[in-house]
Specification:
Layout: E1 2-8, H1 13-27, E2 31-36, E3 48-56, E4 59-60, H2 62-70, H3 72-75, E5 80-85, H4 99-107, E6 111-115, H5 126-133, H6 145-161
Parallel strand pairs: 1-2, 1-3, 3-5, 5-6
Antiparallel strand pairs: 3-4
C-alpha cells in the first residue's frame, strides 16, 4: 500500500509539515511517497493520499486546489486526508479554507486539519510584508509538531485498520 504525501508550499514551511507527516507514516512501516505537487502526473500505484496546501487569505494555493480538481476521479477511489498550513493566531479562530467545502462533494476525503504556519519576514513578498506589518507579533514559527505527528499517527492507525 503506497501513500502519497504531496503539498503546495510557497515558502517551504508547509512542505516541512508534509515531510514530517511522511516521516511519521514511514516510521510506522508504511510505504510513503513524499512528492511535490507539480511533479505528479498521475495517481498510478497510489492507495491513499495526504494532500496539503499553504493558506493565503483564506484560500489554498491555486495549484493545490487545481490538483484536487484535476485528479478528483482517482482521489475519490482512495482514502484521502487534507491539511492546510499557514494561518497564524488563536487556532480556535482559524477556519477551513474556502475550497474544503467543495472537496467534500468532489472527493469525499476522510478529514481536513488546519495547522498553524510559520512567518519569516525575509521570505515574504511585498504584499505579504504589508499584511504582516499591520499584524505585529505574527513573525514566528507557530507550527505544532506534536499535533502534526499525532495527526499522522491517526492516519497510520486508519490505514493499518484497512
Amino acid at each position: 500500500m503506497t501513500t502519497l504525501v504531496t503539498v503546495s508550499s510557497r515558502h517551504g514551511a508547509t512542505a516541512e509539515v508534509a515531510r514530517a507527516i511522511g516521516a511519521s507514516l514511514e516510521g510506522a512501516g508504511f510505504d510513503v511517497r513524499v512528492q511535490a505537487l507539480d511533479e505528479i502526473t498521475d495517481l498510478e500505484g497510489v492507495d491513499s493520499a495526504v494532500i496539503g496546501s499553504a493558506v493565503y487569505y483564506g484560500r489554498w494555493l491555486p495549484e493545490a486546489a487545481e490538483f484536487v480538481r484535476a485528479h478528483a476521479a482517482g482521489l475519490a477511489k482512495v482514502p484521502v486526508w487534507l491539511f492546510s498550513s499557514g494561518p497564524v493566531g488563536d487556532p480556535s479562530l482559524i477556519r477551513a479554507p474556502e475550497e474544503i467545502a467543495e472537496f467534500v462533494d468532489l472527493i469525499g476525503f476522510r478529514e481536513h486539519r488546519v495547522f498553524a504556519g510559520r512567518i519569516d519576514g525575509d521570505e515574504l513578498d511585498v504584499e505579504e510584508q504589508a499584511y504582516t506589518s499591520v499584524t505585529p507579533g505574527h513573525e514566528s514559527d507557530f507550527r505544532d509538531w506534536a499535533a502534526v505527528r499525532r495527526w499522522a499517527s491517526g492516519i497510520g492507525g486508519e490505514l493499518a485498520a484497512r
